[in-house]
Amino acid sequence: MSERLHVFAVNAETGLRHTHLTRAQGEAPALPPLADWLGTAVDTDEIELFPIRDLGDMMLSDYITMAFAPKALEGDDARRMNALLGHVLLVPERALGGKPTPGAALTLIASLPLAGADHKATLPKAAMDLRADQPSAPHPATSRIGGLPWLILGLALVALILLWVS
After folding, report:
1. Rounded Cα distance, 90 and 112, in Å
2. Distance (Å, whole) CA 59 – CA 81
3. How far apart are CA 148 and CA 159, in angstroms?
4. 3-state secondary structure the chain
5. Closest CA relative to residue 23, chosen from 41, 7, 54, 45
6. Cα-flanking dihedrals φ and ψ of residue 14, to 5°?
7. 4-10 and 48-51 as β-strands: parallel, antiparallel, unpaired?
8. d(CA 9, CA 101)
9. How confident is the model over 73-114, as pLDDT tens digits?
10. Is the pLDDT of residue 131 over 70?
11. What is the mean pLDDT of the chain?
12. Domain-wise residue ranges, the chain
């Protein structure tokens, strides 16, 4: 089951902005009674509440597509969203304590399925063959370094013999 994004038109007067950006900038406005408006508990760190005019020339449907990546944005939903004036409230399903039952302060415009990760795949376990009873092969550099003192000793012995013979 995929998560949904609920798009509400705000019917009440509010001059608030409460978005991911404003939270990142440290703004913490006194929010309206969103739990009363939605009819259920709400995690305000997951929602966005802002005036449509903040989008400038961008259409609300384009903003939602870029910011939330819905699976499908039907023509009727896009037209209703793009016709909105005033404020909008965007609420991902994960932010709600239950099914929303909006009051007079909100009008549900669309409920969009969001794209999500597919966690249904099962992967095989990785083969693990680490046995403590088997000695590991020496690293090639280690075996060469171990033979170096013997090589020096052998060359020194040959040099001594040559000096003694001459």
Report:
1. 11
2. 8
3. 17
4. CCCEEEEEEECCCCCCCECHHHHHCCCCCCCCCHHHHHCCCECCCCCEEEEHHHHCCCCHHHHHHHHHCECCCCHHHHHHHHCCCCEEEEEEHHHECCCCCCCCCEEEEEEEEECCCCCCCCCCCCCCCCCCCCCCCCCHHHHHHHHHHHHHHHHHHHHHHHHHHC
5. 45
6. -155, 145
7. unpaired
8. 14
9. 778 888 999 999 999 999 999 999 889 999 899 999 998 888
10. no
11. 82
12. 4-113
Q: List pLDDT tens digits, range 140-150.
A: 555 555 677 77
Q: How far apart are CA 157 and CA 149, in angstroms?
A: 12
Give Cα 9 distance to the centre of its chain.
27
